Amino acid sequence: MYGNISSRTRRLLAYLNGDETFITELGVGRSATRSGGLALSPRYWEAGGTWICTGSNGRLVCLLNGAFEHHAHRPPYRRSRGLVVLDVFLFSMVTDFLSEYDLTGIEPFTMIIAEPDALWELRWDENSQRHVASLARNLPHIWSSATLYSEEYGSEEQCCSIDGNRKNTLLNKTIF
Fold first, then answer.
1. Sheet of 130-134: strands edge to edge?
2. Which of 4, 32, 98, 124 is deepest in the core (most CB within 10 A)?
3. pLDDT tens, 121-148?
């Protein structure tokens, strides 16, 4: 996933490519938000969840599989990660979601939440601790699912914010 919010226009560019290994039927979903707005997303018909959703309030939520490393898949889980994406829109304040939402029994994930004035990263590693970071909106950021790359690349993935003051080693390596 790539995200960049321009400081002049406050626009976000997000690109997200699914990494699921199965083929499933997709559709478009619309949900009402707590503030009376609308959230729009592609949906997995069977589970009802999504990996990316945008709201009429300017909020964008993107979901990536895994937190910091490839994890063992151990179903059943209490709630689908894709439904957690939609649950973010039930909170008028993202900070309330980040601090209050019950993540127990949910498979590890990385979630990027962007609003016109803020950008957050939430990583849930299944170990009862949420890892939350407030990120600079004026810098480009790159994320990838922890389930896609080896430990060597996963640890370097964290250095992918390009701030002009340090060399971005991951972008200069061949990862295929």
1. 26-32, 38-44, 52-55, 60-65, 109-115, 118-124, 130-134
2. 124
3. 999 998 878 899 999 988 888 888 887 7
Give the span between the Cα atoms of 143 and 124, in whole angstroms: 15
Enumerate residues 6+ apart whose C-beta is below 8 A from 93. Answer: none
What gap in Å lies between CA 128 and CA 74, rounded to an integer? 16
Q: How far apart are CA 143 and CA 63, in angstroms?
A: 10
The most distant pair of C-alpha atoms in the chain lies apart, rounded to whole Å, by 46
Cα–Cα distance between 159 and 83 in angstroms, integer? 29
pTM for the structure as a whole: 0.75
The three-class DSSP label of residue 157 is helix
User: What are 127's two structure tokens?
Assistant: 């170990």
> Taking Cα atoms as reference points, which of 2, 6, 4, 30 lies closest to residue 17?
2
